[in-house]
Amino acid sequence: MAAAAQGLSVRLLDEAPQAGGQVYRAPPQSFGAKADPEGIRLRERLRASPVTTCFDHTVWSVSPGFRVDALRPDGTVSFTARAVIVAAGAQERVVPFPGWTLPGVIGLAGATIMLKSQGLLPGRLTLVAGQGPLLLAVAVGILKAGGRLAAVIDLASRAEWWADWPAIASRPALAARGIAWQLKLRRAGVPIFYRHAIRTVTQTESGLAVATGPVDAEGAPLAGAGHEFLVDVVTVGNGLTASTDVTRLLRAEHEFKAVRGGWVPTLDADFRTSLPGLYVAGDGAGIAGAAAAARDGWLAGLAAARDLGALSTAAYEQRVAPLRRAASRARLFGAAMAKLMALRPAQVAAIAGETIVCRCEDVTRGELDAAVREGAREVNQVKAWTRCGMGPCQGRICGDIVGALVAGRGNGRHEAGYFTGRTPFRPLPLSQLAPLTDYADLRLPPPAPL
Amino acid sequence: MAHSDIAVIGAGAMGATTALHLARAGMRVALVDRGEICREASGVNAGTLTLHMTRAALIPYAIKGRALWLSAAEWLGLDVGARSAPGFSLAFTAAEEELLVKRAEARAAMGAPIRLMTPAEVCTIDPGINPAICAAAFCELDGHVTAYLTGRGYRQALVAAGVTLVEKTPVVEIDRRDCAYRIIGRNGTQLAARRLVLAGGVWLETMLAWLGLHIPVKCLTNQLVVTERMRPVMRSVVGIANGLLSLKQFENGTVLIGGGWQGHGDPIRGGVEPIPDNLIGNLQLARHAIPALCEARILRIWLGLESETDDAMPMVGALPGLPDAYVIGCVHSGYTSAPYMGLLLAQLILGHEPEMPLFDPGRLIRSTAAQPKDLP
Amino acid sequence: MSVYELYTVRRQRTIGMKESQSLLQCSSLRTHQIKQASLVRFSFDDKLIEAYAGETVAAALFAAGIRVLRQSPRAGAPRGTFCWMGLCQECIVVADGVRRPACRLEVQDGMVVQPGTVP
């Protein structure tokens, strides 16, 4: 909207049927349900703006220059543009434990989607575990929707939540909400176990049996009795990581920032990547929260407008100054939350050898360790030797964990690297890309020499 | 500075094989690569073992190479997924049938067990193949290798043989000093070796220039597509007479689609992006050959770089005008024959007569600059 | 088919095993968010499933108590929804012959859905 307001022709593509991403994800219109008022406002503003929207479009490739290829229900389609702003957001990260692949174990973000956009409780009796603000948001969301909670299992200590109190105080409304959530859980009698983590989940006849236990500040398990629960659903999340499909594919520069979720594209102050014409805003640039995302998105739109000549440098500087100030304020709170979500290397180091790390290909920690022992020091070589990351999700779910594992056994995250980005960004039905034609109509290059 | 008897630059299958045999014969070998072992062409190619598409003159080498891949567990020490499978080359038009017959004859004359087969016979052996074919050629000595396992196979063998493996070390210069080659890496590493083997694939032109030789090396950017695991849809390795398709399904159910369709890329940037028409064309051919592929979902599209000389024949042998310097590479169907090519070069370097003729790089030299920098 | 049960019981600090077991046996997962709904019917693994128009196949199956959507390729282990955003590919089903993530697939009347296990 910021770019369009400067007179640029702007196309917005999203694989969802409506705008809102994960934070403002709307329930289907047929439910007649109430959506988040912020989300409603956002969608209304978008509809009223000159932006051309393309929903139900799954972008599967972006080529230099730029050409954007998308899959929509009736086939593939391509668009060209002088600039691309990537706002692909974040994805969930879960540190593997025995039983994490059982049906009924879902992510915190996954539980949020069920509640917000499908009118569904994750379970009749749910265990909520992990770290970061999503933990409480989901726990309270379940209570408000009429569900029951067995417990909340938090990696962090109570003190850690308030460690960054100036940042938290910078958003008094959100701070107050956090406190209100705590009280609500307390009043509902939901036990919260700080500095605890899931040890195992096992499928029994009556439900999922969960064993939890204490951990230290780095997430390493401590000896000592934990607690056991019998539930039908476990929802767990260990923070968010940036979705870097586009920037990895285009070979933009990336850097590793643990507090921003891991590998993120290297950006200048105006959200430009190392490639001219390519910008990234929102959590896809590194976890910073919804408020920062909105402001940073606006800034990136103005930067693109300036770079494409639709806004003079003077006008640009004038417009962004106040926005930049507001954005850095907004980022304070987001950064504190992001810190709570950062991966704890000791928790990863403690993953048992028989635990599956790559869900798609059933690759265990032990198999990854063996590859590193044999000389694979970088995640792509580990992938080549074990098939970890070669399944349908192409390493998106396990990538950060694999990076941490390989880094831990070698020389850190930079040497371990990240999975090479390739197209398509999502599995692409062959029949939609290559429609059936008569053989005679195929345009074939000259045959190979004899 | 570390000293070796011989330094091999480029740890793909060609360089790694050469290094392995030299080390096993007792030489002190350093094997240098800019990345981790076997992550370029050797690790990302289609892994097809097919005599249908091998240049006729290279058939004897490919047959030997195939046998070596299939017996890798014995001489390399690790199974890299090599499997024997029947191989078909298909024709869908009269023109393709003509091409098919010519190709089959040329290869059969060089010793490849290729014979023509009726469509009915073909579909009995592999019911997944489109029955609408006009004609087909059959080779029982085909198969495939899991290319991405190549590095794992070679690394443990090289380490066991005592090779000094220097990974993640891009080489920026090679010169001669005190009767030895001095290899200088971008990160400041320096190695010295009395003898030198260049095995740098598409980067050979640059490497040869360091030694004052101008041999053009063309870089082909080959497209590959892999599907998600799917139900068994084919049992053989499939190609088309026009040479534009390679298709196989692995035990894990994934189908790998190749055929040399070009994408954008070069030795400096690597594979950059597929060309849309080429992606679509390749996939359309694939689903013509194996109709059930219409059910597949594509998981990944990538590009691999392949090197080619002016006459499209290999360069394997001693470099003229330079003491103790050799080159190996630019072999069509190079992955298939790599274990044999490396063995032959090692034989030459060790002072034996290679059991099959090599390919004189001298024929390709366009010009020589001044001799490699000879420092006092 | 939907049964809403209201809890007014003042609960204990921790829910014991017995209460857990009884909780797990009753009540629906549908929340009061849904104000209106028309029903559609589709089949999964040859079982008839009733669903609300507009929801995803994943949600409809989950609400119907079906959480196992396929088996994993190497270990043959049961798998179901995980990320709910079309990323993890764990909820893959075959709908009218096409492999899709169930969490990104809207229910249609008469749809024939099969588990996503690769034979």
Number of helices of chain C: 2
Round the Cα radius of gyration of chain A to an integer and report it.
23 Å
Largest sheet of chain C: 5 strands, mixed
CATH class of the domain at 35-115 in chain C: Alpha Beta
Within the CATH hierarchy, at the fold level, what is the topology of the domain at 35-115 in chain C?
Ubiquitin-like (UB roll)
| Count of discrete domains of chain A | 3
Identify the strand order in the major beta sheet of chain A.
8-15-9-10-11
Oligomer: heterotrimer
Secondary-structure-derived class of chain A: alpha/beta
Q: Write the CATH homologous superfamily of the largest domain in chain A.
A: FAD/NAD(P)-binding domain
Overall form of chain C: globular
- Helical content class of chain C: 10-25%
| Name given to the CATH architecture of the largest domain in chain A | 3-Layer(bba) Sandwich
Structure description:
The complex is a heterotrimer of chains A (450), B (376) and C (119). By secondary structure, chain A is an alpha/beta fold. In chain A, 35% of the residues lie in helices and 22% in strands. Chain A contains 16 helices and 22 strands. In chain A, the strands form eight sheets. Chain A has a five-stranded parallel β-sheet. Chain A has a three-stranded antiparallel β-sheet with strand order 3-4-5, with no helix packed on it. In chain A, a hairpin with a 2-residue loop joins strand 12 and strand 13. The longest helix of chain A is centred in the C-terminal third of the chain and has 29 residues. The radius of gyration of chain A is 23 Å and the shape is globular. The mean pLDDT of chain A is 94. Chain B is an alpha/beta fold and 376 residues long. The model of chain B has no long low-confidence stretch (mean pLDDT 95). Chain B folds into two domains: 167 residues, FAD/NAD(P)-binding domain; 150 residues, D-Amino Acid Oxidase, Chain A, domain 2. In chain B, the strands form four sheets. In chain B, strands 1, 2, 7, 8, 9, 10, 19, 20 and 22 form a nine-stranded mixed β-sheet that branches. In chain B, strand 1, helix 1 and strand 2 form a beta-alpha-beta unit. Chain C has a domain of 81 residues: Ubiquitin-like (UB roll) (Roll). Chain C has two helices and seven strands; from the N terminus they run H-E-E-H-E-E-E-E-E. In chain C, strands 2-1-7-5-6 form a five-stranded mixed β-sheet, with helices on one face. A two-stranded antiparallel sheet of chain C has the order 3-4. In chain C, strand 3 and strand 4 form a beta hairpin. Chain C starts with 16 loop residues before the first helix and ends with a strand. Strand 22 of chain A pairs antiparallel with strand 18 of chain B, so a sheet runs across the interface.
